[in-house]
Write a structure and sequence with these properties.
The complex is a heterodimer. Chain A contains 5 helices and 5 strands; from the N terminus they run E-H-E-H-E-H-E-H-E-H. Chain A is of the alpha/beta class. A 5-stranded parallel sheet of chain A has the order 2-1-3-4-5, sandwiched between helices. In chain B, 51% of the residues lie in helices and 19% in strands. Classes of the chains: A alpha/beta, B alpha+beta. The interface between A and B is medium-sized, with 25 and 33 residues.
Chain lengths: 125, 242
Amino acid sequence: MTKENKKILIVEDDTFLVKMYLERLQDEGYQVAVASNGEEGLQKAEFDKPDLILLDMILPKMNGFDFLKEIKTKPDLKDIPVVILSNLGQDQDVQLGKELGAVDYLVKTQNPLSGVVEKISKYLK
Amino acid sequence: MCDDQNKNQKKKVEALKQEFVSIISHQMRTPLSATKWNLESLIENKKGQELNDWQKTKLHDAYQSNERMINLVEDIMNLSQIDKGHVQLNLDKVDMSILCREVAQQNAIFAKANNVEIKVEVDEKTPPVKADRNKLMQVIDNLVNNAIKYTQGKGTVTISSEFHDGDVTFAITDQGIGIPKDQHDRVFEKFFRAKNAVSNQADGSGLGLYVVQKLVEAHQGKIWFESEPDQGTTFYFSLPKF
């Protein structure tokens, strides 16, 4: 499968960051869908069946932790790799995110965008 | 006011302070990361026309200032845990060759802007350590960042490792301005800045090495250094093997 066929769902409420992710990931050749809160994220995940979900944690309506719990209960979504990309970076958050099944937990300020893209491509192989 | 009331009041103030630091730090990370990534895109310049040297310098300066702010926020967040007397660690098996390469990548733009080459001599043969990955990353990032900052003119920063008797020792070596001998005892003090660092106008809060030492010690590790003025400095830290 080429990059063009790989779908990424971004669940992020900060429009400024969304704009940046979109531009970069589309430039890399991925198909990208966006949801601005956890509930919309779940609906889009059901509808789009993405190959990877890039998830923020502090979100309106349903936060990232609850989103993770929800998708892990759904047989058709539970195996989609979820990469958390958040500002919430305390150890207990990272631990909980991983326990809930995220494949990676990246703190935004600690990663260059090129590093985030690299990790995404690794999980999509 | 009786002692109990006093204690309760102090506890409440302390809790409020912690909450304030936590909220502010989290809120600050969003615009800081957006700035970091936008500047990174401009510096990489995958789409635009070739930038002239003046534009490149300005972008690197802006990126550097933003990184300084990010480091300060990270240090303040760590400091609030250290001051509480409890650094919470999420211990795991950490592959140091990957981690050191990630730190080098993270500092690549900063290093290039300062004519510094980062060499990673930590390979897959280095035994994994038992550590909190994020905290350890902050330790190495802080040391590498300092090493770049205190190199004047061209230079190399090397990250290397050695393994002895159950402990893995890491070394971050620079060819920078060094630390004056009469100030060696004060290097890990909170807010301390060496006089030659200040006179060379290198940015810094004096929090970095204090936080680094506390984080290494929280891992039951040790940290020390060797330094010669105008020759360079090597910071070492050792951690138990996984």
